[in-house]
Design brief:
Its cofactor is FAD. It comes from Chilo suppressalis. The chain is of the alpha+beta class. Helix content is 49%, strand content 10%. Helix 6 packs antiparallel against helix 8, helix 8 packs antiparallel against helix 11 and helix 10 packs across helix 16. The longest helix has 36 residues. Bound molecules: ligand LKMIAJQL and flavin-adenine dinucleotide.
């Protein structure tokens, strides 16, 4: 059998790296232990022939694709259980680890929602007694669940959900009902044919009063026959852009009864007699969504790292055109335009991975606070989770598309894996909070923060700079730190512009809701700029922090990637920076001037040139589970990414 010979160009590129590959691998995996765990699981999986398709999945019927995905999910989970029993070194039953294992199959797993949302909801919203009853069964997949919140008529507007859960004290049961067609649950992953339980989000009624949306754990299919229980209508919603094996389904209730104890009661409760016990905060019901949004940032990084690997590798081996007659066709990696497409994808995968880790730490700290009854950090974390989920998923999806295009026709092949990665990242921009809606949620927070800044009130960490910029314009010199300050100034300017926009519309006679709507494009922009500033600052600071404990050669390359990221986004947002009026470059002062002002001039941008020499590079060696970029640093022509 012919042995796959590694491409000469790839070998040559790999021979050029200037730093320790294993060190970078450990950095990406979050340490040596992370690499060891990942490799153990990869080694366990990679040799299982049933996980490799004989026939391309695109040539299978919908039913065959689903069955194939179920088969692979079962194999992976059995391998994981066996591995845990054998080694117990890999915490298999952490949802994120289980999720990572399931994502080793090319197809989206029909049990993705079980691990991604059903189990986390039990962790986050079930009482101790309820966890005692359900958690082990869920972790062992003795029950398979999903998260049924979205309805045909409502996905964003949760307060508008129509499914009802009406408490009957005579039987100590909730009666679940779908009063309209638009109240049918629509989208939940695994609901089509896979799940036999689900978390149902419904309007809670007791003693004729509505208490808003709450979560319930509901069995929908018979544990033996897997048939829908009486009073349950359930099935598959049909083909989609991607995610074809996620098994998204619909669910309708016809006066379906569940025991009182199936209301998730960590936060709020309904007593036997129907009395409602309020939660510390209604917002705690939204906890699972915040968790998944936080996880999505890391997931966006992971999916982008896969695409960047494919594109960088292809760019090393593809030769095309003949700039010099008679000369060999050059590697397309030598074209600056190709570098401009691919390098930012590599840099962004690192930026989002590190930001995702930072956000996860903030979320972990919040959950600890919530357990102590301290909700102080909840509003800021909600705002952060919303904008970072939105921007990371959108950046990831658009850069995946950019990577695909950088591979020409071969990028359009299913075998490139770009279509699968694109389909997965496109979904992420919408699910768990639609892009614009999420940015508007963050804008709510920013408008409040701005009002506090004007009053000189000390603000939470990620908006504290608003007080500074609102009072004294900082002096800065042209350094990465200064660029970050520039992003802060732009964010403040956009927040101010949006707040002024709302005020302008109110002064012209609109009520607040209409004024908000009229200014909503500016509000979205303000959130985008606030979020970009966070990613830029976090990426830079994380690299500075980790550089101190890594070899110099690796630190240099990672520093270059973070400088590339900063420079790229200054140039992408040069219009916003143009709005930042400066004095002569030596002592630059920021003053944000809205477009309305004729005085706008900019020196920071003129001559703003970021020379990124000997950038990054090249060939890559991809591991299944994670991006382990094997860089060969290759002296590239100095390229000027230009002034604005
Ligand atoms: C390594 C592992 C990787 C794993 C990767 C992922 C694994 C799983 C992936 C599975 C794949 C697909 C699953 C998809 C699932 C779904 O899509 S589930 C459904 C998701 N749906 C949504 O996100 C709905 C979005 N809409 C909303 O959230 C609501 O519109 C919103 C609550 C934002 C606003 O609703 P309104 O009724 O208008 O209320 P509003 O007045 O705006 O806000 C009320 C108030 O509450 C605060 N708030 C809102 N949400 C939260 C929250 N989540 N946490 C905390 N606080 C929240 C808001 O700020 C307001 O507060 P204020 O003080 O009044 O300003
Ligand atoms: C692949 C996939 C998997 C999913 N899995 C699940 C799942 O497992 N469980 C689940 O419960 N749900 C799931 N969903 C549903 C998902 O959560 C919703 O699609 C999402 O919340 C958006 O809601 P919507 O579809 O109703 O869109 P809408 O909210 O109707 O959005 C449509 C448009 O209206 C705009 N809009 C809406 N509200 C506002 C506003 N207040 N201000 C300004 N503009 C607004 C939006 O910006 C958007 O442009 C999934 C969706 C997808 C695509």
């Amino acid at each position: 059998m012919a042995v796959n010979k590694v491409n000469e160009d790839l070998l040559r590129e790999r021979a050029r790296y200037t730093f320790n590959i294993e060190e970078l691998t450990n950095f990406i995996d979050g340490g040596e232990e992370g690499t060891r765990n990942r490799r153990e699981v990869e080694d366990m999986v990679i040799h299982v022939k049933e996980l490799h398709d004989e026939v391309p999945e695109d040539y299978l019927s919908h039913k065959e694709r689903y069955e194939n995905a179920v088969k692979k999910g079962c194999i992976l989970i059995d391998l994981l259980k066996e591995h845990v029993l054998r080694h117990s070194s890999f915490d298999a039953y952490k949802p994120s680890n289980m999720y990572r294992v399931l994502s080793m199959a090319k197809e989206v797993s029909p049990v993705l929602l079980h691990m991604g949302m059903f189990v986390p909801t039990i962790f986050g919203q079930a009482s101790a007694e309820q966890q005692e009853e359900w958690l082990h069964k869920a972790l062992m997949l003795e029950i398979i669940g999903t998260y049924a919140q979205t309805e045909l008529g409502h996905g964003t507007f949760l307060r508008g959900l129509e499914t009802t859960a009406t408490y009957d004290p005579s039987t100590e049961e909730f009666v679940l009902h779908s009063p309209t067609l638009t109240s049918y649950k629509w989208w939940p992953g695994g609901l089509g044919q896979t799940a036999n339980h689900c978390i149902v989000v419904a309007q809670l009624y007791s003693r004729e009063k509505c208490y808003g949306v709450h979560a319930f754990l509901v069995q929908i299919r018979d544990s033996e026959t897997h048939m829908p229980l009486p009073g349950i209508k359930v099935g598959d919603i049909g083909p989609k852009l991607g995610f074809q094996t996620a098994n998204n389904g619909f669910l309708g209730f016809d006066h379906f009864r569940i025991p009182r104890k199936n209301m998730l009661m960590r936060n709020a409760q309904v007593l036997k007699d129907g009395r409602y016990v309020k939660s510390k905060s209604d917002k705690l019901t939204y906890g699972t969504m915040m968790l998944v949004r936080v996880m999505i940032v890391s997931d966006a990084a992971y999916e982008l790292s896969r695409a960047a690997t494919i594109a960088a590798r292809y760019s090393a081996v593809r030769r095309q055109s003949m700039p010099r007659p008679g000369q060999p066709e050059p590697q397309i990696l030598d074209y600056v335009t190709q570098q401009h497409k691919v390098f930012i994808a590599i840099a962004t995968s690192h930026a989002l991975r590190l930001t995702g880790g930072w956000l996860w730490d903030a979320y972990s700290s919040l959950t600890h606070d919530l357990d102590q009854g301290n909700l102080d950090q909840l509003p800021e974390l909600h705002a952060l989770a919303c904008c970072l989920k939105a921007i990371s998923s959108r950046d990831s999806n658009s850069l995946v598309e950019q990577c695909r295009m950088s591979c020409g026709g071969h990028g359009y092949m299913s075998s490139s894996n770009f279509p699968t990665i694109y389909g997965a990242t496109a979904a992420t921009v919408t699910y768990e909070g639609e892009y614009t809606v999420m940015l508007l949620q963050t804008a709510r927070y920013l408008m409040k923060a701005w009002k506090e800044a004007l009053g000189g009130i000390v603000l939470t960490p990620t908006v504290a700079y608003m007080v500074t910029y609102n009072k004294a314009k900082p002096a800065w010199v042209n350094t990465p730190e200064a660029i970050i300050q520039g992003f802060h100034a732009v964010a403040v300017g956009k927040v101010k512009e949006a707040a002024d926009g709302i005020e302008y519309h109110q002064n012209s006679g609109k009520d607040y809701e209409d004024a908000w709507n009229a200014a909503s494009v500016m509000l979205v922009k303000a959130s985008e700029c606030y979020c970009r500033a966070i990613i830029c600052e976090t990426f830079w600071k994380e690299i500075q922090k980790h550089s101190r404990s890594m070899s110099r050669n690796l630190a240099v390359v990672l520093q270059q990637l973070s400088e590339l990221y900063l420079s790229y986004w200054v140039l992408e947002r040069s219009g916003d920076f143009f709005q930042v009026r400066t004095v002569p470059l030596t002592r630059t002062k920021f003053e944000f001037v809205s477009f309305a002002s004729p005085k706008c001039h900019c020196q920071m941008c003129t001559g703003f040139v970021a020379h990124i020499t000997s950038v990054v590079v090249l060939a890559v060696q991809v591991s299944i589970q994670n991006l382990t970029l094997t860089f060969c640093t290759r002296k590239r022509n100095e390229f000027d990414i230009g002034s604005c």
